[in-house]
């Protein structure tokens, strides 16, 4: 079992920045890819970004490409989502999720697809990001 905890959400003005952190605990010795998802009020959950276990594969949703940066530090069992140039439409609950290696999430085999909740094995409880003036 893997437990994921997100932190770093909050209220920010348009154009501002936030960095979300996802900390994993539990059985962390298996390789796993990380996905960041979000769910805005009244909308379906969508994939935002993914990063493979080694960090060699990274991908973003078109809506955040060029503004968000995903990274991870496996020695600290931590992943990050740096969000810059935030817009009101980025307001959502952001979730960290993990996928075991055998699922090939964020892998070339699956075209590095970001929005694949069916491949995710573990989810955090989410952190709220509000972009408003």
Structural class: mainly beta
Can you count the helices? 0
Helix content: under 10%
* Whole-number mean pLDDT: 95
Taking all Cα atoms into account, the compactness measure Rg is 14 Å
The major β-sheet equals: 7 strands, mixed
Q: What is the total tally of β strands?
A: 11
Extract low-pLDDT stretches.
Answer: none
The shape is globular
Along the chain, the helix and strand elements come as: EEEEEEEEEEE
Q: Roughly what fraction of the amino acids lie in strands? A: over 45%
The end-to-end distance, rounded to whole angstroms, is 40 Å
Give a topology summary.
Elements: E1 2-7, E2 10-12, E3 18-26, E4 32-39, E5 46-51, E6 58-60, E7 68-73, E8 78-83, E9 92-100, E10 122-123, E11 127-131
Parallel strand pairs: 2-11
Antiparallel strand pairs: 1-3, 3-8, 4-5, 4-9, 5-6, 7-8, 9-10, 9-11
What does this structure look like?
The protein is an all-beta fold and 133 residues long. Helices cover 0% and strands 47% of the residues. Strands 2, 4, 5, 6, 9, 10 and 11 form a seven-stranded mixed beta sheet that branches. The radius of gyration is 14 Å and the shape is globular. The mean pLDDT is 95.
Keywords:
133 residues; mainly beta; seven-stranded mixed sheet; four-stranded antiparallel sheet; 0% helix; 47% strand; globular
Give a quick precis of the structure.
This protein is mainly β and 133 residues long. It has strands spanning 2-7, 10-12, 18-26, 32-39, 46-51, 58-60, 68-73, 78-83, 92-100, 122-123, 127-131. A hairpin with a 6-residue loop joins strand 4 and strand 5 (46-51).
């Amino acid at each position: 079992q893997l437990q994921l905890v997100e932190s770093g959400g909050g209220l920010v003005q348009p154009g501002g920045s936030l960095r979300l952190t996802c900390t994993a605990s539990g059985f962390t010795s298996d390789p796993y890819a990380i996905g960041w998802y979000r769910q805005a009020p009244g909308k379906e959950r969508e994939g935002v970004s993914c990063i493979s276990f080694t960090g060699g594969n990274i991908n973003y949703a078109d809506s955040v490409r060029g503004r968000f940066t995903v990274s991870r530090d496996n020695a600290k069992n931590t992943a990050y989502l740096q969000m810059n140039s935030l817009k009101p439409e980025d307001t959502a609950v952001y979730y960290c999720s993990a996928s075991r290696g055998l699922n090939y999430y964020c892998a070339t085999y699956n075209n590095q697809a970001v929005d694949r909740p069916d491949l995710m094995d573990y989810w955090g409880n989410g952190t709220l990001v509000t972009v408003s003036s």
